[in-house]
Amino acid sequence: MISRVVATDVQLFERAARTFGATNGGGQAYLESTGALAFVASDRDRIFGWCWGYHLIRPDSSSMLYLHQLEVAEDHRRRGIGRALLWAFMRAGAQAGATRMFLTTRETNAPARALYDSLGGGLAAHGPTVNYWFLLNP
C-alpha cells in the first residue's frame, strides 16, 4: 500500500528512514517544513519503499517538484512499487500546481534511469549537469 506521509505520521516516516539507512530523528522537522512531500510503500509490518522531496514555489508564481530520494527494498524491486511511489509523488505535486519535476541520479543507475525513461522523463537538454555541494557550517 502506498501512503502519503504527513506530520502526524512521523513514526512511519522515521521507520522508513531507518529502513533505508537515512539519519533518524529529523522526520518531524522535515514533515512540518513547507513543501515537504513524502510517500511510503508498506504493509502493516514492513516498509518496502519510500520517496521524498519538495514542492518548490518559484518567484514567477509557477512551481515544480524536486524528488530527492526514491528507494525500494531489494527483495521487492521489479514489482511496480517504485513506479507507484513515483506516480503518487507526481500526482500530489500536480494537484498542488507543479508543472515540472526534477531529480538527479547516477549515470550508472540503470534501473532508476529505466524507470524514469518509462514514465516520460527526459534528460536535461541544457548540456551536462554538474552538481555542487556546500557545507554551511560556520
From TrEMBL:
Residues 1-138 form the N-acetyltransferase domain. InterPro entries: Acyl_CoA_acyltransferase, GNAT_dom. GO terms for molecular function: acyltransferase activity, transferring groups other than amino-acyl groups. PANTHER family: L-2,4-DIAMINOBUTYRIC ACID ACETYLTRANSFERASE, N-ACETYLTRANSFERASE. This is N-acetyltransferase domain-containing protein.
